[in-house]
Amino acid sequence: MRFIDLTMPIWEGAGYGEILPFTNSPVRFSEYMFYQKHGIRMTRMKLDGETGSPFMVPHQRMPFDPTPLQPNPKFSWTLDQIPLDRLILRETTIIDVRVGEGHEITPQEMESAIGLADFRRNDEVLVRTGWGTRQRAYELGIDYYKRTPSIHYDAAAILAEKMDAMDSSIFMTDCGLVNPPSVQGNNWFRGEDPLVPLPKPWPSAEARERVLDLGAHRHGGSQPSSYGALIRKAMAGCKCLVDCDQITNNRVKMIILPLLIENGGASPCRFIAVEA
């Protein structure tokens, strides 16, 4: 039996708050009490729900807002309500869509990859481009999210329909962002009219103004959300997995371990592939 860690690590400054005008601010580790001064050492770690390789349910804004990202989702569990057997040793099909930097996966590419996959009823789904790696994340830093492949809405809709028909519940991918830049931030950092230089990240006045301009609650753009199409039919959406090329077969079992947050909607998560 072979275990493969597909988890994006978490480090000081990691995140993508600098490239989106939303509230995904970077990871911070800090010491705020010291032995020499206070007689005790205290540290603080600041994470977001989408830090690292996140696990996000349809009611992602919980515990603060029960409104789902998309209306009438198929699943309504929060993090603490998901049974363990829906997370441990889950049979998973690998959908291979081999694309490069900045590529939007097309409907034709998705249909072809689904047709070639060994897709069985109740399978979870891992869309593998091969682009996302831990080493690349360390080397590129914030540019990792600027250069990542993404999924066109029509391609995501095809996969969502297939997952619904096959009773699949968890969508995973090694794309850093599921939505294309034209949707996720409306050309904030890439595309036809990116902002140069980038405005300061949240909670700066620039980011607040941009959020108001885009309407963050509407997902930021006039185009439909690829992630929205998937999460409406899934128990969870998971992005930013890494090193998926280490999986040697077209099927694998997954151990998926989000934090057990009461009424939680999103969490950093550990993703372990298990090969026999």
What value does the average pLDDT take?
89
Q: Report how far the terminal alpha carbons are from each other.
A: 5 Å
Q: Tell me the strand order in the biggest sheet.
A: 4-10-9-7-5-11-12
Please estimate the helix content.
10-25%
Strand content: 15-25%
Helices, by number, come to 7
- Compressed to H and E, one letter per element, the order equals EEHEEEEHEHHEHEHHEEE
Low-pLDDT regions: none
Task: Report the count of strand segments.
Answer: 12
Derived structural class:
alpha/beta
Q: Any idea what the radius of gyration is?
A: 18 Å
What's the assembly state of these chains? single chain
Q: Can you summarize the main beta sheet?
A: 7 strands, mixed, barrel
Shape: globular
Descriptors for this entry?
two-stranded antiparallel sheet, 12 strands, about 20% helix, 7-stranded mixed barrel, about 20% strand, alpha/beta, about 280 residues
